[in-house]
């Protein structure tokens, strides 16, 4: 497999998925209801997208807007249904009322995933203590990625944090082994500094849709990102 930087694109349906793959995406994050910042798609939507493309798919596990888990039993049922449909990669992350990782919920879902690879998403940008959260999550099976902007406000504010966490010297620390997937207010002009700092994965949603979220993914826009992240020395 190529060691090029990973480009992950948000897909809402099979049309998005086909366009993103055509533009050079390596992986898709599957969500619905982007107005709620991305919720779990139906198993039928997953099945249609899985049939349409052959790149990896990570499916969001979240039923309500925000980072509170809500109905955990319902989350577990949805995770089980998606596993039955063939899903084998996921995205999740929940916080308690104090802004700490809701470890009980996360552990329950991870047990349901039975070793599948998964991303802890931008809940990391709203957690009370990033370093403590990483250490709490360090031993959970399947966790291989953190989706983060470095700040709740986005990459502009979070760039120093991202560069610190991407530093190769930190990779031996507990909780810093998972890959950093940068997304959230990410622009093409951020890419050179992030690449130079050791970031090897990029996540885009609106940037793949120049005409807005009401329009499908543009393969041309995705290709521009593919070209930019492949330009590293």
UniProtKB/TrEMBL annotation:
Pfam families: CutC
InterPro entries: CutC-like, CutC-like_dom_sf
Secretion signal span: none
Family the entry assigns: Belongs to the CutC family.
The protein's name in its UniProt record: Copper homeostasis protein cutC homolog
UniProt source species: Streptomyces gobitricini
Lineage start: Bacteria, Bacillati, Actinomycetota, Actinomycetes, Kitasatosporales
């Amino acid at each position: 497999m190529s060691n090029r930087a990973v480009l992950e694109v948000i897909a809402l349906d099979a049309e998005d998925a086909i366009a993103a793959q055509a533009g050079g995406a390596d992986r898709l994050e599957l969500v619905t209801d982007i107005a709620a910042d991305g919720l779990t798609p139906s198993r039928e939507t997953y099945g249609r997208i899985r049939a349409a493309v052959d790149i990896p798919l990570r499916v969001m596990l979240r039923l309500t807007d925000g980072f509170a888990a809500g109905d955990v039993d319902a989350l577990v049922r949805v995770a089980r249904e998606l596993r039955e449909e063939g899903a084998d990669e996921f995205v999740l992350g929940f916080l308690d009322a104090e802004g700490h990782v809701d470890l009980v919920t996360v552990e329950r879902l991870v047990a349901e995933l039975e070793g599948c690879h998964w991303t802890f998403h931008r809940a990391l940008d709203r957690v009370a203590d990033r370093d403590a959260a990483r250490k709490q999550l360090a031993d959970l099976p399947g966790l291989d990625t953190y989706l983060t902007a470095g700040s709740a406000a986005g990459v502009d504010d979070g760039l120093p944090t991202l560069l610190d966490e991407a530093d190769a010297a930190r990779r031996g620390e507990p909780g810093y082994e998972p890959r950093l997937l940068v997304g959230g207010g990410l622009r093409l002009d951020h890419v050179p500094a992030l690449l130079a700092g050791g970031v090897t994965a990029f996540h885009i949603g609106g940037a793949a849709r120049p005409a807005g979220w009401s329009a499908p993914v543009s393969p041309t826009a995705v290709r521009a990102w593919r070209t930019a992240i492949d330009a590293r020395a």
